[in-house]
Amino acid sequence: MRTIVCLKRVPDTETRIRVDASGVRIDTAGVKYVVSPYDEYAIELALRAKEGAGLGEVDLVTFGDASAQEALRKGLAMGADSALLLVGEPDMDGLATAKTLASELKESDAPLILFGAKAADDDQQQVGPMFAVLTGRACVTGVSTFTLEGDKAICHREVEGGTEVVEVGLPAVLTITKGPHDPRIASLKGIMAAKKKPLVEKAAQLHPSRMRVHALREPAARPAGRIVGQGPDAVPELVRLLREEAKAI
Amino acid sequence: MADVLAFVERRIGRIGGSAFEVVATASRVARAMGGSAHALVLGGAGASAGAAELAHFGAVTIAVGEHDALSEYSPEGYASVIVELVRQGGYGAVLLSATALGRDLAPRLAALLDVPLATDATGIEVVEGRVRIERPIYSGKAFAQLDLDATPALVSIRPNAFPAMESAAAGAVSTFTPQVDPSAWRVRVLERKGAAEGAVDVSEATVIVSGGRGMKDPSNWHLLEALRDALGTGVALGASRAVVDAGWRSHAEQVGQTGKTVAPKLYVAVGISGAIQHLAGMRTAKTIVAINRDADAPIFAVADYGIVGDLFEILPRLSAEIAALKAGS
User: Fold this and answer.
1) Domain range enclosing A36
2) What are the start-end ranges of the H helices in A122-220?
3) Closest chain B CA to residue A236
4) For position A135, which CATH number holds?
5) Rounded to the nearest 5°, which phi and psi values hold at A50?
6) Domains B4-184 and B207-328 agree in fold
7) Are B304 and A228 contacting, i.e. CB atoms less than 8 angstroms apart?
8) pLDDT tens by residue, chain B, 329 residues
């Protein structure tokens, strides 16, 4: 069985983000990029589904500029079989991105298409379920692990402190969150093999964006805090400040 | 001139918390658009209980769709009913809360209505008749102001980010029976293990007590639980990435760029050094308290109040003092 994983290349989560002189973009100088962390969990679960079944393939898709090749190679090194780069420039309008992906994958026979539950840059948590609606697939979001049973997937979700077990009929879209299965580290052998795996580039079918960036800003600096004191003897003063000054308790 | 629809979520069988924030915000946006705010509630039989209260936050009408198949959230069921009402209503904006339910539901509405979606807004205004929102990107390392070029403007708002301002309105409650076909739904919940009674999710809590590697061992979490209990209701436990990665705590509690971004009134960081991706997730808290052994820890740069020292000595004292204060007040 074929599983497709849609992934995104994002700045490393340890990166400091600065707004550039245009005021509507971030300064990309010196920024290190990675596969969005939740997308790595999605790749891991796709590889496990393939290994569990003992057959099938894992195909990666991304929408981005030529530099997104690097993210696809990383997924191939983890063990995915092929990769497709839809060349274009995605923006904040997740529906336009979902339409671009749907234009390409609408006819796909893959029973499962996985997305990370959120991208570590825009954090909009929307492209997966939008894509599902556009392609007529059922969708479960925030899945930490799943098993396949015939024409259904049994998914474990984390919701507001509790958990849910959800059954979904295939073909389906699942958006994946951090779960019990950490993404594997690519081996040297995997990295070498990835260089020979198919990575196809084609122009993305673009859809007009209806969400325009008016401005970006960096967060206001928090006013300098103060050290109330050392050790447990500082507690009464802290409690007084929280009560009287911050009115927080 | 356009009206605004607020979709209101029932939680554990009742309306409250972020529901009031959504209606109050919808009411403010409606005034800016020269229209009025309307609330929509979905649920099983009796879902209208408590709905009249939404009038205090500015809802001119309160429609309650009652159907047994909607007593628990169904993505397909809820989306189909809401989309139908939005199509009929001709709204200028549709608002809902960016809770777990809202995050699942909103993108489905966007795709069905063919409008863009702004999630997790922390600011919203109407500029020349169009909705402009502000939202954190990179988990709060930056903020984006976005103009929505579609009608209705579909926006999910971050819990705790908007005041539940009271403004009385007529708020006539009417119930209706939505047309739904559960046999066509492909997503079915087999089992729900609810959080413990009264438990609050970290993304909606008004107070968060968060632990990091300085806690040394998962068995020490009772110290944080004691502080949580002393602080009263609406308090959630949070965790740093390090302790989630170590398997000490569940990912549901993780605060930061690979966890949840939170905006509580009070955030207490205990034994957390303050990695950049953690700070991104909690820096919009109103008041931040840090307790850490290392006076040079980056967490102290964002904390309003800090205590340097041994958390194992400080925590019991803090819990006791706050409990005494609460008992006396």
Assistant:
1) 2-203
2) 127-135, 188-194
3) B321
4) 3.40.50.620
5) -65, -45
6) yes
7) no
8) 799 999 999 876 678 778 999 999 999 999 999 999 999 999 999 999 999 999 999 999 999 999 999 999 999 999 999 999 999 999 999 999 998 899 999 999 999 999 999 999 999 999 999 999 999 999 889 999 999 999 999 999 999 899 999 998 889 999 999 999 999 999 999 998 876 656 788 888 999 999 999 999 999 999 999 999 999 988 999 999 999 999 999 888 999 988 898 989 999 999 999 999 999 999 989 999 999 999 999 999 999 999 999 999 999 999 999 999 999 86
Does residue A246 lie within any of the structural domains?
A: no
Torsion of CA A169, A172, A174, A180, to 10 degrees: 50
Which residue from A37, A225, A248 is facing B265, i.e. has the nearest CB? A248
Determine, yes or no, domain membership for A213: no
Q: Is residue A235 part of a domain?
A: no
- The distance from CA B277 to its chain's CA centroid, rounded to whole angstroms, is 20
CATH class of B207-328: alpha beta
Closest Cα in chain B to A217 = B143
Domain ranges of chain B: 4-184, 207-328
Residue A177 falls within a domain, yes or no? yes
The number of distinct structural domains making up chain A is 1
Q: In this complex, do B138 and A121 lie within 8 Å of one another by their Cβ atoms?
A: yes
Residues of B within 8 A of A151 (CB-CB) are: none
Q: Determine the residue of chain A that is closest to B318 in CA distance.
A: A235
User: What ipTM did this prediction achieve?
Assistant: 0.94
CB-closest option in A133, A224, A231 to B111: A133
Interface contact flag, B119 A126, Cβ < 8 Å: yes
CATH 3.40.50.620 applies to domain B4-184: yes
B266 with A248: Cβ contact below 8 A: yes
Instruction: Inspect the interface and report whether the beta carbons of A95 and B321 lie closer than 8 Å.
Output: no
Write b or e for each residue in B157-190: b if 16 or more Cβ atoms lie within 10 A of its Cβ, otherwise e.
Answer: bbbbbbebeeeebebebeeeebebeeeebbbeee
